[in-house]
Amino acid sequence: MIDLRDLYQEVILDHSRNPRNAGRLTEPSGTAKGHNPLCGDLITLDVLVEDGVIRDVSFDARGCAISVATASIMSDMLKDKTLEEAHDLFRRFQKMLTGPDAEAEGLDKLEVLAGVREFPMRVKCATLPFHTLRAALDNEPGTVQTE
Amino acid sequence: MNAPAGQNPEILAARDDFPLLARPMNGRPLAFLDSAASAQKPRAVLDGLRDFYESEYANVHRGVYLLSAQATDRYEAARETVRRFLNAGRPEEIVFTRGATEAINLVAETLGRSGRLEPDDEIVLTVLEHHSNIVPWQLMRDATGVRIRAAAADQDGNVDVEAVFREVTDRTKLIAFSHVSNTTGTVLPAREICHRARERGILTLVDGCQAVPHAAVDVADLACDFYTFSGHKLYGPSGIGALYGRLDLLTSLPPWQGGGSMIEEVTFERTTYAPPPARYEAGTPNIAGAVGLAAAIDYVQRFGSENIQRHESAVLKYGVDRLQAVDGVRLIGTPRHRAGSISFVMDDVHPHDVGTVLDREGVAVRVGHHCAQPAMRHFDVPATIRASLGIYTHASDFDALVEGLGKVKELFQL
Ligand SMILES: Cc1ncc(COP(=O)(O)O)c(C=O)c1O
């Protein structure tokens, strides 16, 4: 059984308390809201995409340590990534959390969230920011729900 | 802290009647503090179900053979057990449902179709309601044009009679409220609300889900028109519950679902309906569920509702005191009268994270909005941690909870 300290690592606690890129963009190209009805996590995420490249990401999150830390680390990693690279990152992240083995290749700083896979009830907390990102990139109206 | 005074030795021993509670959880003894979501089952219920299936099971109200007659007797005896449990006047006033949710939908839908309500009539709820006592009324509102008003709670989570009647107007046709809140544990002044409503000719529906496991209920004394509860929160099986409805109402409301058992005569031109309770029990009912529910009621009644109430109050007060003494814990709701549940939040740690840590410590609590989002909004929190007790809960379960909160603080460096 993995230790809770592997889930709530220092880096995660730090990102959840001092989320990077917190706030809103003044002129986003896409915005989306995400909601996890099970625990009430709410996130509003803005993106600025120019020529197929993510120039800026900002978010407002009210939620658990896992979802806020994921949003924070994710937002840090997205700048100057192409849309294809962003989607690829989500695929890899999902694979790390729910795939047959904890493959963390190419996940860089998001790798600290690998422990979440041991807590199936919490996987949705970690994927909520990514689902919201995908909706923001598509500029989908409405709210993304995790269930 | 010292063990709480006023505990009942017989009830303290009840824990041994619940096999599941002996199961270790994540390598720790299980401290099950989520009975408000669903209670564990005593051997008396498990054995009762098994015996029934092994020796007396058949469909009810159908066959002429002995077995069917026996099963029917057991099913109807279960109805009588519920009648006595609620002190209803007649067994016809007890309708078996899938649970409280189904019962409230039944009343809302049939009332909506009854012609008794006009657009601009009003229904009063409270902000503490479970979604199952909100959404069925909204569905009915959309069909009838009635208005819904919600009585406020104060900052401590009390809902006073005055707060309810502030929302009452000449157009109010029904007040629907929970006897005990599943979030704050608030005991509402049900008797006063129902009596005042009756004087003004307003119908009442009381959601008793969180009340019946903790105290004696007497629908005659309450003077309510409808009362409902779910069996699974009362140590019975899931998928069974009961609706009490005043006989003249059940007789005059239209049928709900159509099907077998609820009819008198069917032709393609016209069908006549059976009198209550059959009128509201279309199709093969949850026969064993009713038998299991009766076994659960028999089980709790052996201890006596008054004894359970006294004992649980002592344990619950111990829990409240212990939680209030923890630095960084803030209770959500400190009502004057409380039963069953304690909600709280921790500074700087989200309830969901608290729940994960507690689980590792063998402590099962519910975290989230408890199907009461308006109540969350009232207290301005996205979610809470809820510890709730049952007849088998010991003071030591709250000790384990408080110890677990210590682990939370350690892990989050608070
Ligand atoms: C106060 C209250 N009302 C209604 C319900 C709904 O009960 P059920 O889901 O068994 O129909 C619950 C259970 O969560 C409850 O606590």
Q: Could you characterize what this model shows?
A:
The complex is a heterodimer of chains A (147) and B (414). Chain A is of the alpha+beta class. Chain A has five helices and four strands; from the N terminus they run H-H-E-E-E-H-H-H-E. Chain A has one domain: Sufe protein. Chain: A. Chain A has a four-stranded mixed sheet, with helices on one face. In chain A, helix 4 runs antiparallel to helix 5 (123-137). Chain A is globular. The model of chain A has no long low-confidence stretch (mean pLDDT 92). Chain B is 38% helix and 15% strand. Chain B contains 14 helices and 15 strands. Chain B has helices at residues 9-12, 43-55, 66-86, 100-113, 135-144, 161-166, 190-199, 219-222, 247-252, 287-303, 305-324, 351-360, 373-379, 395-411, and strands spanning 31-32, 94-97, 122-126, 147-151, 172-178, 203-207, 226-230, 241-245, 263-266, 271-273, 329-331, 341-346, 363-364, 366-368, 384-388. In chain B, helix 11 packs parallel to helix 14. The longest helix of chain B is centred in the N-terminal third of the chain and has 21 residues, at 66-86. Chain B starts with 8 loop residues before the first helix and ends with a helix. The A-B interface holds A 1, 4-5, 7-8, 13, 17, 37-42, 62-66, 119, 121-122, 125 and B 26-27, 348-353, 356-357, 360, 367-369, 376, 382-383, 407, 411-413. Bound molecules: pyridoxal-5'-phosphate. Pyridoxal-5'-phosphate binds at residues 99-101, 130, 132-133, 178, 182, 207, 209-210, 230, 371 of chain B. The site of pyridoxal-5'-phosphate has 13 residues of chain B, from helix 4.
Question: What attributes characterize this protein structure?
Answer:
heterodimer, A: 147 residues, alpha+beta, Sufe protein. Chain: A, 4-stranded mixed beta sheet, 20% strand, B: 414 residues, alpha/beta, Aspartate Aminotransferase, domain 1, Aspartate Aminotransferase, domain 2, 2 domains, 7-stranded mixed beta sheet, 4-stranded antiparallel beta sheet, binds pyridoxal-5'-phosphate
